[in-house]
User: Fold this.
Amino acid sequence: MDFWRSGDSRLVVEEGKESAIRWIEAYQPEGSSQQQQRDAILKACHTNEDVLLRSCLPGHLTASALVIDDRWEKVLLHHHAKLERWLQFGGHCDGDGNLVHAAWRECQEESGIEDLWIFPQVIDVDIHGIPEIGSEQAHDHLDIRFLVMTDHRNQPVVSEESKDVRWFAFEELKDLDTDDSVIRLVDWVVTHKAKLNCESESER
Assistant:
């Protein structure tokens, strides 16, 4: 499977939840926890017409991606300004049902790096709670996750969403204030590295 990069005609907004449902249905979970979360997210999609909007409560779809370097040695994370943890890039779909595009767009905006290529396949799903912050009430993010790669020489820029953005070696994550699901994403990359590395090499 090809990696998609800037200029690809498939990296566009697709309004409506039908596209989002197709991405989620195509995901083949590894393990019972992923299967249960996938099923719960699909149920929310079929139940709520506005599942792609942040106004949909108690939960709505989000899209994110783990950004790694093209040497397969480091991961790019940001210190989330509101959640105060080192996390992958991602955010609200705001009506965009093309989840691969939503994740890629969020990575561009939050990393400041335009030259990103994305693996067009869901690699993980995660339902997690967002605490009450200011006037924003507590709610759930139904997060659909992808893998993004960039040249190791690219330098990130801190956005208003972050307090810091930094490259970390995979082995550094054990000492980092991050989320268990971020570790799970990195573990997925390590497990599937051989196959994906061949595919990414063919794209460059």
